[in-house]
Specification:
The chain is mostly helical. The protein is 75% helix and 0% strand.
Length: 314
């Protein structure tokens, strides 16, 4: 996959969760204008339309490979793009907060490392496990409002439960990117956006039968355009390319930035969400965890274990 014109994967792994944090904001804002099915359908329709024009050269170039891997693209793109968004927007429509959803999605790195170790027999460095544990403590801290011993008494609302489901989808999506076909990034995003649109169509059709056809006002269209360009295309590109360049385990660790970005975005845009000292403590834990885990990944590459099993291509 061509990397020409793209920033460093570490820069992309900061920008991707930053854009995703704004996705949570638009998800909460958009519930007043569009249903979850409408938001998902329109975002991928617009994204596919844009990419069909600007990426047409690469799509024609990679078309034989795209056809060869159509089922993988449909499953991975349809679940990681469409189903993820439908469930996420449904969580917001049920009253989930931006901060809570952002916190819950920080479970992604833990899941990616665990499943990668189980499926591919990856052997993360001890410092990587330690980093994940420290960052996860940041999640626990903010989730329990600075009282981690109260975790056992925490009851998930329906919106939080749906956010947990989206986390599972994205763990699978991150791991599946190990097997991404070797095509240009623009072709990849186009194919997955098209897959997201295809999967979204029946849900949108059902919504039409229940609520009829209607369109958002100019604010809703501006929001959809922002979602299509910055969240649907650019953030997906940054995360996907980073996974391919440095691996799912290391790239997924950036998801721990979501609680911080999400909390800041929630405070900036919504009066009912506040930033407290607990968020600052959580930020410190997350940063320490990221640094620790990344250093462990560097040591793992520099001093590989003898006779370590060969991992899948990343």
């Amino acid at each position: 996959m061509s990397k020409k014109g793209l920033p460093s994967p570490y820069v992309m792994l900061v920008l991707a969760p930053l854009f995703w944090a704004t996705s949570n904001v638009t998800g909460k804002l958009g519930k007043g204008w569009l249903t979850p099915y409408e938001m998902t359908f329109f975002r991928w329709f617009i994204a596919t339309l844009i990419l069909s024009f600007f990426a047409r050269k690469f799509i024609r170039q990679d078309w034989p490979v795209i056809k060869q891997h159509w089922l993988w693209l449909l499953i991975v793109g349809g679940s990681g793009f469409a189903l993820f968004n439908i469930i996420l927007y449904s969580a917001f429509s049920l009253g989930a907060s931006v901060v809570n959803v952002s916190i819950i999605t920080a479970l992604i790195p833990f899941g990616v490392i665990c499943f990668s170790a189980f499926i591919y027999k990856d052997q993360p460095h001890l410092l990587q496990w330690l980093g994940i544990g420290i960052a996860f403590m940041g999640v626990i801290w903010i989730l329990t409002q600075g009282q981690p011993l109260a975790l056992a008494q925490y009851n998930f609302a329906l919106g939080d439960s749906l956010a947990l489901l989206t986390t599972g989808i994205y763990i699978a999506y991150s791991i599946a990117l190990r097997h991404a076909p070797n095509i240009h990034w623009a072709s990849m995003i186009w194919a997955m956006s098209l897959a997201g649109l295809v999967v979204a169509i029946p849900f949108y059709g059902y919504d039409l039968t229940q609520n009829g056809l209607h369109f958002p006002d100019w604010r809703g269209w501006l929001m959809l355009l922002y979602i299509a360009v910055f969240i649907s295309i650019i953030s997906k590109l940054f995360y996907m390319e980073s996974v391919i360049q440095i691996g799912a385990n290391r790239a997924a660790l950036a998801m721990n930035l979501l609680p911080v970005f999400g909390a800041v975005m929630g405070v900036l845009f919504f009066k009912d969400e506040v930033m407290t000292v607990n968020h600052i403590i959580a930020l410190g834990l997350v940063i320490i965890g990221i640094v620790c885990s990344e250093y462990g990944a560097i040591l793992r590459r520099r001093y590989p274990l003898e006779q370590a099993p060969h991992s899948a291509k990343t």
